[in-house]
Amino acid sequence: MSTIWKRARSYRLLSxxxxxxxxxxxxxxxxxxxxxxxxxxxxxxxxxxxxxxxxSHTEERFTWTEGKSAKLSLPIGGENxxxxxxxxxxxxxxxxxxxxxxVEVFVNGQKLTEWQGSSNPAEYQLTIPADVVKGGxxxxxxxxxxxxxxxxxxxxxEDGRVLGVCLLWLELTKSG
Length: 176
Known about the structure:
This protein has 176 residues and is an alpha+beta fold. The protein has helices at residues 3-30, 130-133; strands at residues 38-40, 51-53, 55-58, 63-66, 69-75, 83-91, 101-107, 110-117, 122-128, 138-144, 163-174. The chain has 2 domains: 1-30; 38-174, Jelly Rolls (Sandwich). A hairpin with a 2-residue loop joins strand 7 (101-107) and strand 8. The longest helix is centred in the N-terminal third of the chain and has 28 residues, at 3-30.
């Protein structure tokens, strides 16, 4: 390959990289803060834009976590904490082996709580301290479900997805 073609290819790759970087920055700046807004996880609820990994497809009223970890990225517009995080979720359970599902909740890499989810939807709440927020523009929320399993593996049906919990909605509000 001639030097001219190598340079042209390098410039083309560089320009595509710059375009992708600028598009990413514009998208991040364009997302408004979710503070004070309820995010629905059913069809038409718009949660897809906040789900970063570990989520199954959106169903009519909720979305399942798929695998042992699922993450959300919630834009907060640089607001300082503390915040209250409230949500309704249900867990994949199967008695007698899995009567409840442990759910560890991490925010910005720090474990803040552990819940025991049941198959009945229930409201859960936690306070996110100001020192966990640290003046960032987003909150990274992670749900770890170490006992997530598939309905197929417990003989319930042919669904092979490894299910932990399903989220119906969540809301982030300022605390205090």
